[in-house]
């Protein structure tokens, strides 16, 4: 379908953008790359009164590594992340996840902030943000605040963002280079949304036991989440076949996957377990430091 | 809204409603119907154009977002009556049948090879996954793109005899 009618503004600063949003009384929407919003407009699932385009707002597309971790500007595109030579060392889990996001042409325009705001339950970046205890930095006329990714995604296409707030950056905590990590997903074609995907990592203590266990899932739940009982089954254990069995069993019991045209709930549950099992085995083979 | 941009090397000024996609602007306001519109929501890739050097879906880009940019459509790939090396390779390998998806694939692959002339078959297939073709089964398209790499400074066709 053709897009619904709307007004359009392309402010120069974040403050102007926030003022325009606030003045729209909840009817305004932000657009940057537009790769999630434009399909919603074309399907008439969204009909904003005004589109506030961030294309002229500067300094929102930087990837910065600091002592606090990684700060990724909201206008950073997938191809910017893919092309950043420092990222595979600075955050290997992020570097492994991003090549799965969307197709080539979409990767040239799609942005970090757009994916987070869109909150598709099967999208990679929201899954990664939750798995890594990420935080979203958001701006409005009321100031800047941070929202934990775990509290941000409320359901399919639903977030804790207020109508007048702008996602400015995603922050990921510092990455330990000795960490064991894994990312995997199943999609019908590479670049499509995942039927199920996992992003996970843990550290090893002095005697080789898993600590700081994070098992994040996307596509197999109504919003990205961590599997707490599966994490507990792994925490403090030396990873072996019996432990992996228990973790996978806990994950399958804990999951309550959605059912849709792509897969049944049972298939998603089995698939997610298989992804976790395969990835834990691969992680066990990663070098000890 | 008034937009000014460069299309296929020529400066253009167009007046469009804000809701106009770049695809519809090119087709309806500028008569450049080589850009095909298939799904209109970013799935099929037929409407791909090159925006400031990058392949993008023109149905997922507003015309107003192209203000101040340089756009190349399939009409702009060849500057005269002859075919480009990429187009000649498509003809040689029968890389099209009905032709509906072809403009989007040509623009995508032209952008790819301009940026990555050494793209290997896996990379080409990965990029091609953003363009739906229901006729060819993709095999002749991949062969044509592999062969065309030489014209972009990539490996010569003979060196890729494997798989071509």
Describe it.
The complex is a heterodimer of chains A (about 290) and B (about 160). Chain A has about 290 residues and is an alpha+beta fold. Chain A has two domains: about 65-170, 2-Layer Sandwich (Uridine Diphospho-n-acetylenolpyruvylglucosamine Reductase, domain 3), CATH 3.30.465.10; about 180-285, Enolase-like, domain 1. Chain A contains twelve helices and 14 strands. In chain A, the strands form four sheets. A five-stranded antiparallel beta sheet of chain A has the order 4-5-10-6-7. Chain B is α+β, with helices and mostly antiparallel strands and about 160 residues long. Chain B has two domains: about 1-75, Ubiquitin-like (UB roll), CATH 3.10.20.30; about 85-155, [2Fe-2S]-binding domain (DNA polymerase, domain 1), CATH 1.10.150. Chain B is built from five helices and five strands. In chain B, a hairpin with a 2-residue loop joins strand 1 and strand 2. In chain B, helix 2 (about 85-90) runs antiparallel to helix 5. The mean pLDDT of chain B is about 95. The interface between A and B is medium-sized, with 30 and 28 residues.
Q: Top keywords for this entry?
A:
A: 289 residues, alpha+beta, Uridine Diphospho-n-acetylenolpyruvylglucosamine Reductase, domain 3, Enolase-like, domain 1, 2 domains, four-stranded antiparallel sheet, B: 164 residues, Ubiquitin-like (UB roll), 5 strands, 29% helix
Q: TL;DR?
A:
With 289 residues, chain A is α+β, with helices and mostly antiparallel strands. Chain A contains twelve helices and 14 strands. The radius of gyration of chain A is 19 Å and the shape is globular.
SSE layout and pairing:
The complex is a heterodimer of chains A (289) and B (164).
Chain A: E1 7-9, H1 14-23, E2 28-31, H2 37-42, E3 50-53, E4 63-66, E5 69-73, H3 78-82, H4 87-90, H5 92-97, H6 104-107, H7 112-118, H8 124-131, E6 135-140, E7 143-148, H9 149-152, E8 153-155, E9 158-159, E10 166-172, E11 180-186, E12 196-204, E13 210-218, E14 225-226, H10 228-234, H11 241-254, H12 265-284
Parallel strand pairs in A: 1-3, 2-3
Antiparallel strand pairs in A: 4-5, 5-10, 6-7, 6-10, 8-9, 11-12, 12-13, 13-14
Chain B: E1 2-7, E2 10-15, H1 22-29, E3 48-51, E4 54-57, E5 70-72, H2 85-92, H3 102-115, H4 121-128, H5 139-148
Helix pairs in contact in B: 2-5
């Amino acid at each position: 379908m053709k897009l619904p009618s709307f007004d359009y503004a392309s402010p120069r600063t974040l403050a102007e953008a926030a003022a325009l949003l606030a003045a729209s009384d909840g009817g305004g929407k932000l657009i940057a790359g537009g790769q999630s919003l434009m399909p919603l407009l074309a399907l008439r699932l969204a009909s904003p009164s005004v589109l506030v385009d961030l294309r002229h707002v500067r300094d929102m597309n930087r990837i910065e590594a600091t002592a606090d971790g990684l700060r990724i500007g909201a206008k950073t595109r997938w191809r910017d992340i893919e092309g950043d030579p420092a990222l595979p060392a600075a955050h290997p889990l992020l570097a492994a996840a991003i090549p799965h996001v969307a197709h080539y042409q979409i990767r040239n325009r799609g942005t970090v902030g757009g994916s987070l705001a869109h909150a598709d339950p099967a999208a990679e970046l929201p899954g990664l943000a939750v798995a890594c205890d990420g935080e979203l930095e958001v701006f409005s006329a009321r100031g800047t605040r941070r929202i934990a990714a775990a509290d941000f995604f409320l359901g399919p296409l639903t977030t804790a963002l207020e109508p007048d707030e702008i996602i400015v950056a995603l922050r990921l905590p510092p990455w330990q280079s000795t960490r064991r990590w894994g990312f995997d997903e199943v999609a019908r074609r590479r670049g499509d949304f995942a039927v199920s995907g996992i992003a996970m990592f843990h550290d090893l203590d002095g005697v080789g036991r898993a600590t700081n266990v994070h098992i994040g899932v996307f596509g197999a739940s109504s919003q990205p989440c961590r599997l707490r009982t599966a994490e507990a089954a792994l925490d403090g254990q030396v990873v072996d076949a019996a432990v992996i069995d228990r973790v996978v069993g806990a994950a399958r019991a804990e999951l309550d996957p959605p059912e849709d045209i792509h897969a049944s709930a049972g298939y998603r549950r089995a698939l997610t377990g298989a992804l976790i099992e395969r990835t834990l085995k691969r992680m066990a083979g990663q070098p000890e430091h | 809204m008034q937009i000014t941009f460069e299309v296929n090397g020529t400066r253009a000024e167009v007046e469009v409603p804000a809701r106009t996609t770049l695809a519809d602007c090119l087709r309806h306001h500028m008569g450049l119907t080589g850009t095909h519109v298939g799904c209109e929501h970013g799935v099929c890739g037929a409407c791909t154009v090159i925006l400031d050097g990058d392949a993008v879906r023109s149905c997922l880009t507003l015309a107003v977002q192209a203000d101040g940019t340089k756009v190349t459509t399939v009409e702009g790939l060849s500057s005269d009556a002859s075919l480009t090396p990429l187009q000649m390779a498509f003809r040689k390998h029968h890389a099209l049948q009905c032709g509906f998806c072809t403009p989007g694939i040509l623009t995508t692959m032209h952008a790819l090879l301009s940026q990555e002339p050494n793209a290997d078959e896996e990379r080409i297939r990965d990029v091609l996954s953003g363009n739906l073709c229901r006729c060819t089964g993709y095999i002749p398209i991949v062969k044509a793109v592999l062969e065309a790499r030489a014209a972009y400074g990539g490996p010569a066709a003979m060196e890729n005899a494997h798989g071509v």
